[in-house]
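User: Here's a protein and a ligand (heme-A). What would the complex look like?
Assistant: Let me lay out the input and then the predicted complex.
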Amino acid sequence: MSDNSLNNLPGGFKGMTHDMGSDQTAFKGVQWGKVMMWIFLLSDTFIFSCFLISYMKGRTSTVMDWPNTSEVFSLHVGNVPVPLLLIAIMTFVLITSSGTMALAVKYGYEKNRKMCGWLILATAIGGLTFVGMQVFEWSKLIHEGVRPWENPFGAKQFGSFFFMITGFHGTHVSIGVIFLFIYARKVFRGDFDNGKRGFFTTMKSDYVAIEILGLYWHFVDLVWVFIFAFFYLW
Amino acid sequence: MHPGIIFLGVIIGSVLFHIFTPWWWTDIASNWGAMDDTINLTFWIGGGVFVLVCLFMVYCIFMFSYKEGRNVEYKPEDHKLEKILTIATTVGVIALLAPGLIVYNNYINTPKDALQVEVNAWQWGWQYRLPGEDGILGTAQVAKITDDNPFGINLDDPNGKDDILIEDDVLHLKTNRPVKILLRSLDVLHNYYVPQFRAKMDAIPGILTYYWFEPNKIGEYEVLCAEYCGVGHYAMRAKVIVESEDNYQKWINEQETFSDLIAKQENDKLKITIVAKSNN
Amino acid sequence: MVNKIMDETQNKEQATTHKIGIYLWIWGLLFVLSFFSYMVDWFAFQGLLRWTLILIFMFLKAGLIMAFFMHLFWERYALVNVLLWPMTAIACFIILMAAEAKYTVFTRLLYFFIGG
Amino acid sequence: MSDEYNQENKPLEAQSSETMSGTPSKDIDYVRPAELPEQDLYHGHSFITKWIFCQDAKVIGVQYFLTAVFTGIVGLVLSWLMRLQLGYPELVPFITAEHYYQFVTMHGMIMVVYFLTALFLGGFGNYLIPLMVGARDMVFPYVNMVSFWMFFIAVCVLMASFFVPGGPTGAGWTLYPPQAILPGTPGSNMGIILMLVSLSLFVIGFTMGGLNYIITILQARTRGMTLMRMPLTIWGIFTATALAMLAFPALLVSCIMMTLDKMLETSFFMPTILQAGEVLDYGGGSPILFQHLFWFFGHPEVYIVALPAFGIVSDLISVHARKNIFGYRMMVWAIVGIGALSFFVWAHHMYVSGMNPWFGFFFATTTLIIAVPTALKVYNWIITLFRANIRMNTVMLFCLGFIVTFVNGGITGIFLGNVAVDIPLSDTYFVIAHFHMVMGIAPLMVIMGAVYHWFPLVTGRMLSEKLGKWHFWFTFLGAYSIYFPMHYLGFIGVPRRYFEMYDSPYVTSATGMNEFITVAALIVGFSQLIFIYNIVASLSIGKPAGKNPWKANSLEWLTPEVPPAHGNWGEKLPVIHRWPYDFNVPGAKEDYITQTTPPSEVISAEVEKT
Ligand code: HEA
Ligand code: HEA
Ligand code: CUA
Ligand SMILES: [Cu+2]
């Protein structure tokens, strides 16, 4: 019955109609957890979209001046203000961590415990650095007098949207970091090799979990791409 | 009793209720008769479909209630029938939508000669501002509202000086002259709604909204606030008086303009200072 | 026969790991693209040019992350479609809200500041 | 520890053995072998793990059901209080305007979100999905359990708001700012905050449940269960859940932003506002933005409560009319199409809200387009009745009641969707009548019918038919006579959310009708006692149901044990050979062929291939 086995499935749109018309699973060979993460991320995408749409509406319809982001977020190197320097560094840090995560997933599937574990740790550190820089950025703005409810440089909404959106994103990063540490520990302990049961869920551990965590982490990066474009570059 | 009879009764009852109901819309007093017509059209098409669908259902339950060994049709699909029904419904929908959109197009395009009336809503009351001789309302902002400037008119806007301020909830309108109602709110959402005029629109703080109509029947009408605005919502009434050109002119001449108000206030201040001085 | 399926499932898993080169390439590209978007601000491009560049780089980056880091490129089309079609609702929302925002600011300026 | 789980991952063999056996019928009965290994289930042993923190979707379903019905009853009592005030002002002295608005708000929010959504998706969804698609349980039982408890906490927070200083929020269920968080509205301090927190918790909890429902349906069906063989109930619940996953984010975002506006005085939704002569610290925000976000959630939300009802009613009609549902494919596409379209019509609630006036054209068009797939569903229901063999039992009566009320309410929806017609009718009792017809009664009819239908499955006993019929007629005729006349209040122009109508000339003419409606509402409400009595009494004295008392085809009736045990299917998962609507197939011995019947057993029947 090899015509139905997972490897010989048709791909592309033909594969789609085949999958949808078949029994048991609609996405052949995709594990439950992975579909769950994808659907969750879809839902989360809607959350971030709503935030960003609100931001667009708020920013466009205010008659007050919107602060010039490349000035507000500039850092002084020596005496020269470099626009968006911190943000650029944050972006690079996040992308770096996304890369290490992608590699961690790869080594996870290759059952290379050591590499996988270290790469996850590296990812976590990248995430922590990012959050740290965000804290720095927040404190700098707060120092300059920007608050969620007021903004000395113009439209009130600037502070509100800035703290809300980066705050929500930062929360995502922080949650991710926590999970990264937990998973790094699990990897090093070998949970994924011997299928140890989860403490809460009582489900068996599997290396798919790393890919799922990876999906989440890349999503956080993905959101940052949009925030970077719309909040800082606009 | 067979349940079908009761269902039949419900349908017939609904139709009879509709025909003999003592509750029906108030006599229209504006140009929006077209809205009533679209409602009637919808009643005919929609009501017709409702009656047909329900009658067919009643027919089925009369004819096909359970009998051991009844010959039941086994036909999962009938593409032709489904196609016919889809097309028929689409036609029905278009027949409803097309006139509706035409009316709506009229509703959002105000005639050039419309009189402007600005309605100011607040928790929980109304006041009005009419343009003066120049026919233009001055710009205004909530932030500029003070006791001396109850409408928040921008003092440096020359158009605002001759605006007529009506700090009262009774509004007078001329018959047969389109009015454009410009809605402002000082605090929360409200809605300036006169059932006889059919038209309505929310007043929203922070932006300005509008609608227009042409009152065509002399009389007094009650204004209801039709957007929930807090505990006083139900009590937020006002009055519109539609009257002839002459009466309207008389009324408008009695009203105070913004410059009158300022002058009066200057006067009052002067008086106060004089009094204060004389007391010294 | 059962073993065969199990084997194939395993093979499938093997198939989800890819050559390291791909990841490094994508990684590099992401850095380059980020650098480009940063340059948009650095050179202070304005107007249409700025927006086109920002959006192009943004979508390229987002696409690369989704396609390769998140493996969407290798995923079954059924899943890809389920994930991407809902974005039309977001697109509709964005377009309408942009129109709404323009309208709001128009009435604000007209009636609160400029006068007509 | 190991006996808390099934045997360590049984290999695929456990399920695929059937096709391996070399019976002659092999060819026509062939079903693809299993793709998934046996699911690993956690079996609780103590009372707490079995009934409280239970991971069995069936128990979770019942927990959801009971909690939701509790909130529904709270909502019902609130509606009596409102009706008393409207029909007989000043009769009940403690109903002040503040209280009235709090009742309206809590009534609306409870009924829509905490009652109907939770009941359909949390209650029916949990119970039926694994059974109907042939899974042992939801795919993530633990998350599913947490989902219920999140919902439970959300309900507790909601109910707590009745007891905080200032009382619950009285902002209307739409919670429009700025008034929702300003002092002119009752409960604008603690009340509104608790409401927003509760909604956020609800969304989080629901997301956990929703992921389960979606993935169980997509990825954990049994062998032979293709998407096009799923009962329409599952299609309805599935699409509704998908809508919820995409619509609730907008609600969550608007809740977060409003909470910030309230607590931190940000100005997302707050423009410059004058309160009691003072200009507040807000400025520049946009109340319309909230409305867009709210309705981007809100309109899909009303279909979230309608689609499961559509699905369930299709199954009930088919089973009790002993005939296949007409146009199954069309029904599926209609459900999915309605779901997809519902994201493009939200601003039909905002025709008179002062949004960009040009939107009216777009939204009127999309709104009326939705009527086409909906109409097809209605046609298919009634065509199913044509040349059928209709059991006129309680379940069928509720289905018929659903059709009448739904068509009525749907058509009034067409009035409102057509923007020029909506202008005079918006924010009047016509809207109230529309949505109670289409949401307040029609889905409730389905819920009640569904309870009569599935009660034997859940408890093993039948409900009393006699009481059921009384219950039906009281509810249907009563509710119809509440809402049918109410449309005409709207024509007169009576605005909604009016604490008192008193002195307006055209409003006073409706006093009589208001009194009548109040009496009818009280009767309908109290007649639910018949229902509750029926349920409680039947638990012990009801006729034992036995297996498959309705002679239905779908999987949930075919478990080895009735009521089904944890894990649902005993040793071996069922294998599906057909859709669930093979009733009265020509040539078949009986008037139904269950989904598990292999073709070789009904060789002579002329079944259509599905
Ligand atoms: C279950 C819930 C539910 C459902 C299914 C619907 C269905 C529909 N609703 Fe309703 N609606 C609500 C719940 C629901 N609604 C609620 C809760 C509110 C108020 C919220 C608030 O403000 O508090 C509301 C308000 C509301 C408004 C806003 C009114 C206002 O505030 O001014 C509008 C306007 O377009 C509308 C339209 C529609 C339409 C076009 C449908 C359509 O889907 C109906 C389609 C069905 C049919 C058309 C009937 C069957 C068809 C036939 C028999 C075929 C023949 C028909 C024709 C040819 C026309 N609804
Ligand atoms: C599903 C939703 C739902 C349901 C069932 C109801 C049921 C009822 N509603 Fe409600 N209502 C709303 C949703 C609902 N309502 C909403 C969203 C609003 C708008 C709020 C706002 O403006 O902010 C509203 C507003 C509203 C108003 C307008 C208030 C105003 O604008 O001033 C009125 C007035 O008469 C009213 C009356 C009633 C009555 C008399 C009933 C019922 O009494 C009708 C009869 C009841 C039943 C037939 C059975 C009920 C049974 C149960 C609840 C549980 C039992 C179930 C089991 C045991 C399984 N409702
Ligand atoms: Cu003002 Cu309601
Ligand atoms: Cu709607």
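Summary: The mean pLDDT of chain B is 88.
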